[in-house]
Please model this.
Amino acid sequence: MRALITGATGFVGSAVVRAALRDGWRVRAARRASSDLMALEGLDIEYAVLDLGDQTALTQAMADCDAVFHVAADYRLWAANPDELYENNVEGTRRVCDAARVAGVARVVYTSSVATLGLPKDGSPGDENTPVALADMIGHYKRSKFLAEEVAREQAAAGLNVVIVNPSAPIGPRDLKPTPTGQMVLEAAAGRMPAFVDTGLNVAHVDDVARGHLLAHAHGEAGRRYVLGGQDMTLADILTLVAELVERPPPRIKLPHNLVLPIAHVAERLARLTGKPPKVTVDGVKLAKKRMFFSHARASAELGYQARPARDALADAIAWYYAHRYLPGGRRP
Model:
């Protein structure tokens, strides 16, 4: 079988490429002409050079494909022009689905995010059924992913065979840019994160998330969504574990959210002057007021999804950062 994978040069996308190859798929990787191919070096794949804004090129790239894994996304918590997030995430998803329909693709797996899910008020983990609305989405990234997932569900209701997966916070090797979560791990491993706020994440190994995509293709129900998660951890516990892996003292300073928020506002103002993304964002601080804990029970029961301990994800990420000289010193886990 052949699959077109969008976002194939990215963090999650390149992991999905590897998972597909291990399952015997022939992979056509969609990429821009300017894409960095480092994450795909040495893999036996073909490339389709295109832009997600070109629906004709998308349709042509899907010719003779049995499946499309639409992993590409604009993952930024701050953008000088927020319209780009909606164009890339919402309209990009619409074009991919429309192209798949024209090309006669048998099944589409759409990569959403747990950012689109609700969180129970009692602090328990959220899941696919937790009530949520667009008004609950904090920031343009979350709103754009929420609307993009609505597009996928509308396409499923109209007859397109679409399965939705909602990864939590993927961590692991080949996070080239890195992603906001990967940058946090990198900063902590380098000893550049002396303080933290009271928040939490669901940490998943990127290769488990990738495997979940293939399981969703094989066993998922059209129009249904599946959390691809891992282990719930407070930020303090994550930073302590990272410090243990690199043999550094963990941060001890706990900052109140209300103290960090003004700093984020200043950082964003400076970013608009310099053109460089801020180290801390207003949306990021607002998101940090909630613990992003989630259950992947549905994916385990219906897809056979399994998740390894968060320690493995963090250790693999740090080892990759050392091997590729993102980190200059310390102990390699």
Summary: The two ends are 37 Å apart (CA to CA). The chain has a mean pLDDT of 92. Residues 157 and 223 are 7 Å apart (CA to CA). Residues 2-172+203-230+293-308 form a domain with the Rossmann fold fold (CATH 3.40.50.720).
